[in-house]
């Protein structure tokens, strides 16, 4: 075990530690989101606004694999962090080995099944005659990239759990830079002229590059992950159950995100005005998805920095440090999300104009209106994001599961059918707003309760010190 990193997680000022671990994660997630955004811009300029819809159609399969990678990565990193805090080297090694092998088995299985049934899957995801061919070209290459993509996600979480956030950041930066450089070369006629297929090929190469880097770093002697290819085949079924149980809330949240994309694509097909058609609305939704990822993911980067701190200090029973870092992180993430809401209100038209090389008035106006409606919900989602991640880091999967379910299942699915029936496609945008506000308010109430409970576990002398009272 690296003593220096252990002392950092358990002894460094929590505000400085949170910033130290969050900045690399934030930069990495911004880079990751940026190349998704740039991918969309290049596709729009290389094949038109309708082609953007192909990205929205294929997005659910990417979200499902992301969900699996995050489930295994967060579940194993929670076990790893707590074992790290206890100094339990054997559990640390078993967590890493089990996570990597489990991920390979699941991702290969998904790739094979999806390649065999590409056409029916695309129609189920909401593809129409306007965007089916584009979607199929994109889908095949994305499926081939699933194994390195998901493994990189798992290793990113484990690398952050051992306190090497810079390595995780560099891995994602490599993927982002490779993708951004290759996109125009593969997409445009002055390069290989492959269109949408070129965007997918660039993504495949980028994901593989990201994985190769972070896997090589995990094999290095400096890493506390202790990845050993000779023992990588050792599989701990008991630990698998714990990994899955802890990671299920993240899996549910992201998988339900994929389900919601499928539902929305199909509702757009059903409710789009006949004279306009569903293609342009699916493209609008695709752009909004990508912009949300780019604008909000830095906030999630803060949470990624928070998770190893919570896991380590919870395992070590440093309750005051837990209280201090949670208070500080919630304050930061709320300021950020409210700021993004204000930015969206002011600049939604400008943002959509970037994705329309022909300045399509309907695409820009309708897209900006939809994005402004959705952005109101940004003001409250911070509490849900922090609460769910903290429960996972502490090893409370049921609580994290309920927080994750509150927005995407309990609220969103019934509301989107009701609101679409009442208001047409505008009802989709209103559903995002209402679900985010209600789930955020509920999470805020639970957060206040948990913080009050946490204060009861802090030693009296430390509690008095926090309140500015001398013992």
Overall description:
The chain is globular and about 70 Å long. It has 17 helices and no strands. 83% of the residues lie in helices and 0% in strands. The model has no long low-confidence stretch (mean pLDDT 86). With 471 residues, it is mostly helical. The protein has one domain. Helix 10 packs parallel to helix 15.
Give the arrangement of secondary structure elements:
Blueprint lengths: L2 H9 L2 H34 L1 H38 L2 H28 L1 H7 L7 H13 L1 H16 L3 H23 L8 H23 L18 H35 L6 H38 L3 H35 L7 H15 L5 H14 L2 H27 L2 H30 L4 H7 L5
Helix pairs in contact: 2-3, 2-8, 2-11, 3-4, 3-6, 3-7, 3-10, 3-11, 4-7, 4-10, 5-6, 6-9, 7-8, 7-9, 8-9, 10-11, 10-14, 10-15, 11-12, 11-13, 11-14, 12-13, 12-14, 13-16, 14-15, 14-16, 15-16
End-to-end C-alpha gap: 37 Å
Q: In the residues, how many domains can be counted?
A: 1
Q: How many individual β-strands?
A: 0
Relative strand content: under 5%
The structural class is mainly alpha
Helical segment count: 17
Q: Largest sheet, if any?
A: none
User: Roughly what is the average pLDDT, rounded to an integer?
Assistant: 86
**Shape, per Cα inertia axes:** globular
Integer-rounded radius of gyration: 22 Å
Q: Which ranges are low-confidence, i.e. pLDDT below 50, for 5 or more consecutive residues? A: none
Instruction: Tell me roughly what share of residues is in helical segments.
Output: over 70%
The ordered string of helix (H) and strand (E) elements is: HHHHHHHHHHHHHHHHH
């Amino acid at each position: 075990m690296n003593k220096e990193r252990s002392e950092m997680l358990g002894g460094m000022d929590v505000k400085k530690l949170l910033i130290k671990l969050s900045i690399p994660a934030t930069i990495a997630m911004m880079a990751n989101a940026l190349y998704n955004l740039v991918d969309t811009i290049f596709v729009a300029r290389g094949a038109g606004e309708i082609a953007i819809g192909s990205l929205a159609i294929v997005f659910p399969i990417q979200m499902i694999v992301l969900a699996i990678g995050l489930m295994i990565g967060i579940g194993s990193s929670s076990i790893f962090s707590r074992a790290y805090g206890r100094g339990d080297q054997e559990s640390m090694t078993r967590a890493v080995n089990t996570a990597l092998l489990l991920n390979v088995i699941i991702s290969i299985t998904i790739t094979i099944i999806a390649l065999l049934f590409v056409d029916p899957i695309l129609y189920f995801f909401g593809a129409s005659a306007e965007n089916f061919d584009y979607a199929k070209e994109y889908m095949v290459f994305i499926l081939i990239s699933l194994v390195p993509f998901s493994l990189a996600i798992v290793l990113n979480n484990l690398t952050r759990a051992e306190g090497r956030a810079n390595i995780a950041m560099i891995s994602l930066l490599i993927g982002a830079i490779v993708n951004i450089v290759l996109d125009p070369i593969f997409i445009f006629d002055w390069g290989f002229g492959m269109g949408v297929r070129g965007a997918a090929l660039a993504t495949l190469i980028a994901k593989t590059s990201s994985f190769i880097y972070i896997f090589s770093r995990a094999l290095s002697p400096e890493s506390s992950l202790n990845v050993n290819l000779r023992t990588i085949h050792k599989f701990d079924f008991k630990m698998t159950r714990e990994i899955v149980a802890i990671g299920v809330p993240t899996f549910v949240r992201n998988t339900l995100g994929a389900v919601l994309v499928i539902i929305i694509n199909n509702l757009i097909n059903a409710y789009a005005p006949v004279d306009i058609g569903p293609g342009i609305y699916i493209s609008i939704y695709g752009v909004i998805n990508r912009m949300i990822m780019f604008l909000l993911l830095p906030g999630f980067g803060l949470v990624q920095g928070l998770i190893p701190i919570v896991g380590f200090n919870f395992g070590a029973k440093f309750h005051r440090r837990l209280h201090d870092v949670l208070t500080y992180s919630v304050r930061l993430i709320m300021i950020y999300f409210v700021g993004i809401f204000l930015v969206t209100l002011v600049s939604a038209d400008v943002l959509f104009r970037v994705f329309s090389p022909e300045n399509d008035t309907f695409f820009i106006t309708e897209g900006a209106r939809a994005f402004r409606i959705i952005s109101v919900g940004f003001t409250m989602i911070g509490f849900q994001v922090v609460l769910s991640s903290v429960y996972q880091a502490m090893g409370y999967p049921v609580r994290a599961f309920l927080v994750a379910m509150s927005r995407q299942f309990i609220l969103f699915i019934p509301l989107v059918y009701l609101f679409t029936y009442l208001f047409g496609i505008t009802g989709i945008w209103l559903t995002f707003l209402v679900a985010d506000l209600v789930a955020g308010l509920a999470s805020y109430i639970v957060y206040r309760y948990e913080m009050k409970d946490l204060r009861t576990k802090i030693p009296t002398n430390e509690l008095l010190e926090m309140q500015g009272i001398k013992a």
